[in-house]
Design a protein that fits this description.
With 251 residues, the protein is mainly beta. It is 10% helix and 37% strand.
């Protein structure tokens, strides 16, 4: 017994004491497995935190939509009108950029793309024939050609409107003839008929009418704008021409 006690004291002296070590009670069963710890196990975090990315100020491609051009067209244009002959008809052009002018003798081909551009004035009139109406746009250029100036050349674009639909488009280059030409200044063909002034008409064999603003309702604020493009006339000094108008007010 004494030898066993001495051996125990030597072993205790060889093993360093731990501050957090509590010796078991004398009656403890040392052969039983140790009790599981109730403290949660802490696992080493091996993930790398992703850096915060700011999305402020980032613009997504295609987020901006191109503004749609608004054309104040208050009558229906048939889709099939694009294929009308001799004059096609469709919506087109910017009403805010519309101007009143005439460009005569456009080249049919070749490097020269400009004709003789002339200043002009325009007027709009509405005529009722039964259930249909005719909107007549008259454009009066100031030609440099003395013959055309003497004949009071002007152009007319005529739209037949039925129940809010444009059913027909016509155009004409109108020149006055006879001694009463001076009395016909600034008048359209219907007004010339009413005053008994003789005139001649030349209808184009081909061309295109683009409407950027259309209001067939009589008022002081009615706005009509468009262009007759590359109209092929046979008359001397006119030939292939562009006729553009921008008119406010409709009688």
């Amino acid at each position: 017994m004494r030898r066993a006690a001495a051996l125990a004291l030597l072993l205790a002296a060889a093993i360093p004491a731990r501050a957090d070590f509590t010796p078991p009670p004398p009656d403890a069963d040392l052969s039983a497995p140790p009790a599981a710890s109730s403290a949660p196990a802490v696992a080493a975090d091996t993930t790398t935190a992703a850096p915060a990315v700011s999305t402020g100020g980032v613009k997504v491609a295609g987020a901006r939509k191109k503004p749609v051009l608004k054309r104040p067209i208050l009558a229906h244009l048939h889709r099939a009108a694009r294929g009308w002959r001799p004059l096609s008809l469709r919506a087109g052009g910017d009403p805010e950029r519309a101007r009143t002018y005439v460009e005569l003798n456009l080249p049919r081909s070749g490097p020269r793309r400009r004709g003789e551009r002339l200043k002009a004035t325009a007027s709009a009139r509405l005529y009722k024939d039964g259930d249909e109406h005719w909107l007549v746009i008259s454009v009066f250029p100031k030609p440099r050609d003395p013959v055309l100036a003497r004949k009071r050349l002007h152009f007319e674009i005529r739209l037949r409107v039925v129940l809010g639909f444009v059913e027909e488009v016509r155009a004409a280059a109108v020149t006055l003839s006879g001694p009463g030409a001076a009395r016909g200044a600034g008048l359209n063909a219907r007004e010339l008929d009413a005053r008994g002034v003789a005139y001649e008409e030349d209808a184009p064999g081909s061309g295109e009418v683009l409407i950027s603003a259309l209001d067939p309702r009589p008022s002081w604020t009615a706005f009509n704008a468009g262009v007759l493009r590359r109209a092929a006339f046979a008359g001397r000094g006119v030939r292939l021409s562009d006729v553009s108008w921008k008119v406010r007010g409709l009688r």
